[in-house]
Design brief:
This protein is about 20% helix and about 20% strand. It has about 425 residues and is of the alpha/beta class. It has a six-stranded mixed beta sheet with strand order 10-11-9-12-13-14, with helices on both faces. It has a five-stranded mixed beta sheet with strand order 3-1-8-5-6, with no helix packed on it. The longest helix is centred in the middle third of the chain and has 15 residues.
Length: about 425
């Protein structure tokens, strides 16, 4: 079964907690703090694997979690870092954040790695909290909780050339005649319900990958007839072979059908019409097709669409058409950007990051943690008057001062924000 869209849940590993411990040995009853730091949580990593061509594996496993970091130990022993989780996906997979539908990563190459979630940092042990006036701190930092997301994996096949057109015009037969692929072929609409790939061994230039895209219908750009599922796979295709039934066996006009399919491409993504197209006027072994071939040439060759009279049943005209496609590919830019107008997922802005406050009432000690707070401390020089003023303003605008007061902080109590420690006064 071909599966090209699934929803899964991913979570990074939490950081291990710091340890509260004091050195004890024979004849040493009041040693200093020796609590170790917690280990870092594991990352969630996606990697492209060219040996995979479907998202079928994710139908049975929908939740992935990296390992948590171990808690710190006595004698300044650090906790072990959590194991990363590596998730293999087919090349051509887009990873979207489910709530916003924005793109978090686009795996377009074999072996390409993307870290989607970084594991939480380990908490510091109580050895880091010792000061000349507080030599026996009985508190340590908790490990940072890692982020988690529901994400959508969306596979868009990467092929050099795509066969497009209405159902039952002979795309699968053409694929079977010019490649080593063996698609299911029958005289029914939508015989092809999933894209098929084959390799064309070209005499001009290099070999190229040809994809049989399932037949489109009017309204495909609006989702009619699995339209979005099918159109998704044309976005990474460099060149289109637009197949029409020149014999008009279904009673449709091939000249009009060409326009109808292009209109669906335009409405789905206007950039698709900038891709080169060649027209394969198929079923020309039937005498009635000749007049339609002339009409197609008259209507579209002046617009830059070369028309080839072909017969997939007898192999007629296929070599000439493939030679033209190979010439187009030979001059095609290698660095073409397939994704257009996609809004990438952005992490939460620093000033909107959540924070937490841990209270040690006996010590009159308050520990503030949070990713945004940590970043702010990292780039603010609090030793300067301007920097200190910014720091005070940040604490109030962020709501940290209010939160501390709600926790019951009193004047003279101590606040710890990562590497900074100060006494609270109004």
């Amino acid at each position: 079964m071909f599966v090209d869209r699934v929803k899964i849940h991913i979570k990074g590993g939490n950081g291990g907690n710091g340890m509260v411990s004091f050195y004890r040995a024979k004849y040493i009853t009041h040693g200093g703090p020796d609590g170790g730091d917690g280990g870092k949580g594991g990352d969630v990593i996606f990697i492209g694997d060219s040996n995979m061509n479907t998202l079928m594996d994710f139908r049975y496993k929908r939740s992935f979690k990296a390992g948590n970091g171990q808690d710190g130990g006595k004698l300044n022993c650090f906790g072990k870092s959590g194991e990363d989780i590596v998730i293999k996906v087919p090349v051509g997979t887009i990873i979207r954040e489910a709530n916003s539908n924005k793109i978090m990563a686009d795996i377009a190459k074999e072996g390409e790695k993307k870290v989607i979630i970084r594991g939480g940092k380990g908490g510091k042990g109580n050895q880091h909290f010792a000061t000349p006036t507080r030599q026996a701190p009985r508190y340590a930092e908790r490990g940072q909780v890692a982020k988690e997301y529901d994400v959508i994996l969306e596979l868009k096949l990467i092929a050099d050339v795509g066969l497009i057109g209405f159902p039952n015009v002979g795309k699968s037969t053409i694929l079977s005649m010019v490649t080593n692929a063996n698609p299911k072929i029958a005289n029914y609409h939508f015989t092809t319900l999933a894209p098929n790939l084959g390799v064309v061994q070209s005499r001009i230039g290099e070999d190229f990958v040809l994809a049989d895209i399932p037949g489109l219908v009017e309204g495909a750009s609006e989702g009619v007839g699995l339209g979005h599922e099918f159109l998704r796979h044309v976005e990474r295709t460099k060149v289109f072979i637009h197949v029409v039934d020149a014999a008009a066996l279904e009673g449709d006009d091939p000249v009009e059908n060409f326009q109808k399919i292009n209109q669906e491409l335009r409405e789905y993504n206007p950039e698709l019409l900038k891709r080169p197209q060649v027209i394969a006027a198929n079923k020309t072994d039937i005498p009635e097709a000749q007049q339609n071939v002339l009409r197609l040439k008259e209507a579209y060759e002046k617009e830059g669409y070369p028309v080839f009279a072909v017969s997939a049943a007898t192999n007629q005209g296929l070599d000439a058409m493939l030679e033209e496609v190979a010439k187009i590919l030979k001059d095609y830019p290698e660095d073409i950007v397939f994704e257009q107008d996609y809004e990438e997922y952005q992490e939460i802005e620093m000033d909107k990051e959540p924070f937490s406050i841990e209270v040690f009432e006996e010590e009159h000690y308050y520990v503030v943690t949070g990713t945004g707070v940590e970043k702010m401390i990292g780039y603010t020089n609090i030793d300067t008057e301007k920097g200190f003023a910014f720091f005070q303003r940040y604490l109030r605008e962020k709501g940290i001062i209010k939160a501390l007061e709600e926790k019951g902080i009193q004047e003279g109590d101590t606040v710890k924000i990562y590497g900074l420690e100060f006494d609270y006064y109004k």
